[in-house]
Amino acid sequence: MSDGHGPSPEMPPGWAVEQPPPYGAPQASPWTAPGPHPHAAPGHGPQGAPQQWQQPGYGYLPPPALRPGIIPLRPLGLGDILDGTIKLVRSNPKAVLGLSAVAALLASVPVAIGNVFLLDATAAVMTDPTSNSDDLPGGFLAQFGGPLVSLVVGFVVVTMLTGVLTRILGRAVFGGDMTAGEAWRLTRGRVPALFAVVGLQFAILMAPLVVVALLAWALVASGATLSPGTALAFLFLTVILYIPYVLFFRTRFAFAAPAVVLESRGPLDAMRRSWTLVSGGFWRVLGILLLTSLLVGFIGSILQMPFTIAGTLFGVLGGGGIGTLILAGVLTAIGGTLGAMITYPFEAGVAGLLYADRRMRSEAFDLVLQTAAIEQQRQGWVHSSADELWHPSNSAGS
């Protein structure tokens, strides 16, 4: 029996309670599962779980949600998603940060190489004012090539990293951990499908730009001339229309990588699955993804800024020497890697938890998770069979 000042001695170890009920409110056992899902059919609930829902009225309080791992097993709020992402990193730091470091380094190298060429051109202009940086080899690529390549590489590695980290996340929901090697072993069979998803999304996102480029080429080939004002207005209109296009499709396909890894779907089927899951919650998903990008972008920039400034100073003031240019490139790569190590896992974790949230909201998937959590606690450990719970056959809506 509990004296009202703590959990019952019979509560299984490791189970968390979200908040204790207020003084004088009816007490519910903090480790029992909630009753029927608000949208579930009568009698649809976790097997063997005592039903503790009380009749509405004065003192009515639903029992707290189970939380065996990084999130409570119920539809998630913004705070739950951000907190769960932080807990994902803290509970599996070697696997999450190690994989993120590899991905971040791949995306940072093109920027570092581009900066070396740009700093070399800048140093040449400072020592010889008669020179023109645009005439130097790689002048244009130094300014735009590195960031563009990094943007493409970042898109690829974030999608891939989301798939791998989703496998870690799938087990962390139940309080289990996973090494980077195990995560890769369980995910490598899905890598071709992940690459296919990346390719399809990239083709969809680039299609408008290809059309605009072909239209511009046709105008030039026909001998038509545009005034600078007309060309600038055309460019401005293209950007204004392209941004919402990108946001729409990136949001619609945000859950394609988790569907590939956790549900073993093919590329097209995973993209259809993501489109379906986002339906009914598009603006919420878009808002959370945008907020996450702004948040981690700000933090990543703060971490990256000292290394970028130091690398720029070494490259410009070093007189263009090969040693200073290499040092500047290394510092830029280190700064980019540190910044992306925070950005990539956070974006991947938020996408994975949003995927889980959408399944709980649209498919009553929290009931599946609650039932599994009770069984996991009876066994006293989290085993690999928990990974199979994410298969769509376990969803009420499938």
Automatic annotation (TrEMBL):
Q: Where does the record place Low complexity bias?
A: 40-58
Highest taxon, organism lineage: Bacteria
Does the record carry Membrane as a key word? yes
Q: Which UniProt keywords apply?
A: Membrane, Transmembrane, Transmembrane helix
Region (Disordered): which ranges? 1-58
Q: Which residues form the Glycerophosphoryl diester phosphodiesterase membrane domain?
A: 238-333
Entry keyword Membrane: yes
Region forming the signal peptide: none
Q: What is the protein's given name?
A: Glycerophosphoryl diester phosphodiesterase membrane domain-containing protein
Q: What organism does this protein naturally occur in?
A: Nonomuraea muscovyensis
Q: What is the lineage of its organism?
A: Bacteria, Bacillati, Actinomycetota, Actinomycetes, Streptosporangiales
